Amino acid sequence: MTHLVTFDAALEPVRVPTGTLLSEAARLAGLNLMQPCGGQGRCGRCAVRIIAGSARRRSSLRLSADDVAAGWALACQTVVEGDVTVAVPPQESIERRLTTDRTAREVVAPPGYDPIRDQTIRRLNLTLPPPSLDDQTDDWSRLQTAIRQESGLAVTRLDLDLLRRLGRILREGEWQVTAVVEDGPAEARLIDLRSGHTPVEAPLWGAAIDIGTTTVTLWLVDLLTGRVAAQVAEYNGQIARGEDVISRIIYASKNNGGQELQQLVLETITALLEAACARVGVSPSEVVKATFAGNSTMIHLLLGIPAESIRLMPFVTAVNHVPPLTGRDIGLPIHPAAAVDCLPGVASYVGADITAGVLSSGLDDAEAATLFIDIGTNGETVLGNREWLLTCACSAGPAFEGAGVLHGMRATRGAIEEVWINGATYEPTFRVIGGVPPRGLCGSGLISLLAEMFLTGVVDKGGHINTTLPTPRVRVGDHGPEYVVAWAAESATGSDIVITAVDIDNLLRAKAAIYAGFSVLADSIGMPLADVDRVLVGGSFGQYINVEKAVEIGLLPDIPWERFSFLGNTAVRGAYLALLDRAARERVRAIASRLTYIELSADNRFYEAFTSALFLPHTDLSRFPTVQAARAT
Amino acid sequence: MPVDIPKDKWPGAVRTITLGATPAEGGTRARTVTVGGEKALPYMHFEAEMPYRPVIALEIKDRRPDDWSPLLLEEWGEAASDPASWAKAAEAAGADLLVLALSLTGADGQPTTPAAAVAAAKAVLAASGLPLIVFGPGQAEADNTLLLAVAEATKGERLALGICEDKNYRTIVAAALANDHLVTARTPMDVNLAKQLNILISDMGLPLDRILMDPTTGALGYGIEYGYSVMERLRLAALQGDAMTQFPMIVTPGFEAWKAKEAKVGQGVPAEWGNWRERAITWETLTAVTLLESGADIVVLRHPESVRRVRAAIDDLMTAPVTA
Hints:
The complex is a heterodimer. Chain A contains 19 helices and 27 strands. Chain A is 30% helix and 25% strand. Chain A folds into five domains: 2-97, Roll (Ubiquitin-like (UB roll)), CATH 3.10.20; 115-195, Ubiquitin-like (UB roll), CATH 3.10.20.880; 205-342, Nucleotidyltransferase, domain 5 (2-Layer Sandwich); 361-396 and 513-632, Nucleotidyltransferase, domain 5, CATH 3.30.420; 399-507, no CATH class. In chain A, 50% of the residues are buried. By secondary structure, chain B is an alpha/beta fold. In chain B, helix 6 links the parallel strand 7 (182-186) and strand 8. The interface between A and B is medium-sized, with 13 and 13 residues.
């Protein structure tokens, strides 16, 4: 028996026998449907909509119940059982609607942001009464009075350098000046004074900076509107001196290592500042406020504070709440009197990156039990809600930030961010950020690649590459067995882009550390992971992380996808919120005082959890029912 | 006054595994050896019957092992120079089965060839009717080449081939699968790693009644407590129903004990250490008996006197003193 299949995108309908796959019918109709997974119903790229007629779905793994109700079907998994009319959507719209491809949220200023109420930095256009024989008030007092009249702020401090120039600035502007003042935690302070008035719509620049162990991220922000004018990121220049915080601390304690590490991170931040400022055409010295997030070690090294005690029993920091600093103190080319704020940490291994992350995720105000996982070099995890907050950190290494991997790179232009492997031919298809020839693999690309290698049997559950596969993609190279993702001819580097057995070991260790961290954390309060209502994922992954693939490799817990949200870099976002809003800054302080730290190194369950997670997806397969089901199909 | 002994009831059991095949079963062995089947912790006879006794294997080599202790070479004498004679001597010494450990190189210093490995295995099979375990030299490439050749040449004998490790198991498992043999899966003293390797091997389709696991151990005084505890945890997991730990355990106390200074060295040690031979045998025996008590099903020994002593210990342990 044959049936008529009509595709909206094809000129002519085709006639096929009962049981023909829609993908085959499409091919006969002259349509080229994407099937990167080789027609195994895994990638969801061949989704079509059945408008009318009769077809049976053998599998709808990547489709939600709503999708199926709306007529969506995977062409490679759907057989014709009668006459049928099918709509073939454009490829981009398929990629957009796939349920697991979560995109990072656009940065929008916090709703109702009011710089006069919320911002600690004010810019005031002042017109002072000129002095006369009747009014011989000194210049500084005259300015103080004008500021008080305009803003209600009693400014009591300014730099000597500015005091020296004060009289000239006032007179050059003929007593019309622009003052930048800080309504600081202890006192109000004059940061800058210029001749003449400044248009009210002109931006007032601040910077939110997250110093990651591996990646430093900087947002250049207009403090008056909350607009993020530039987002830039670069690897931390300290990486070459140790990949994790412990090796950095050891390096810092030798010779002038501390000074060198401080210099390296300052160079990284300076380069980012210059790049961000160049984008909007201002000088870095225009930046009058900078807020820093980062783990305790990074903050210590930034400030040139010896960090040795963080590493040694009983693991104490020199400082958790860094007092207010200035641009001059810190040695960056921002305004010398700029307000510099380092967000507070909690303990040696729970730094301002976590407190900022919690702020950004809103976890401290959540009703439901929420798990926040920051997939970075220190896999920090927070579990809790508005009543309680537990946290732990475990050293995952830099693999998910694309470092410590032979062809790893940051999630920027040229990075492979998603991969599919054809299960029959072992040929990969990939998507590159910016749509250009690939230069390497970023964190999300590595997660995606490992998941595909696992599902297609290129690696076994132990992560070992199966070198007996009949494909030139698998070979033994200088670093042992490897899989070729892109040949030299198609890459931007002119050489093959590969993932090696060593890379896979690093990825496995990283994912195992993160999984072990949050599973022990949940276990420590007797909460099954399945009872977690929401999972918030943070990390420097560029646009998104494919939750399904992260679950397949056992990085994230196997719970329904709709409970996951991807937040992007939560530390820099937290710094941004604290940069803008004094109430948010106060909330970070409250979070720091509420977090209860679970020390994993003192918990013998951690090692056990780590080694059992050192497997794909996990030694205890019953923890990953959907992965088991997917492999069975 | 009667005392009620509390009894544990376990949901799981260790798999029953048979090594060797008689002519009726497609092999040439005079008898087979069956291990496993435990439904309770070792020797808790009042909780559940232990259906099979733990067994003793004697380790022999394909050529005279110059690195072995002179005490061992003296004991085995000329037999140690010829695998067939050694196999006969080992059977006479009371072994339940044999382990043939292949050398990395021949006496001429050249790498052992597959032909030489096959010849040694065949000679042993011809000389003794005991079931046989064959270990490769412990170097991935050599293990794969030699064990594949041996597996093919001895198809149907239900040998156990070793050693599978997580980085090198595919070829050995494939060879066992194709030629009706078993494998031993060795992992470095860790419950999870043991379980993971068992999963990898069973993922290749090898039936679960053809896997022995070797959780590794240390000799007495060299980490045996750790090995003991890992074996105990593996057995507890098996009894609790974890399918991927329900395999009989094989351990190599002979290899471990004869590495220890106390067994190896006869000169330059304190006089209080006493007679060297007695000390060395005691070291091997105590290591083996300790591991039996933590759940070992097969102990691989080197000295015939140790075989006698360990057998006596097994006899004792298998006599149920308490009934209820």
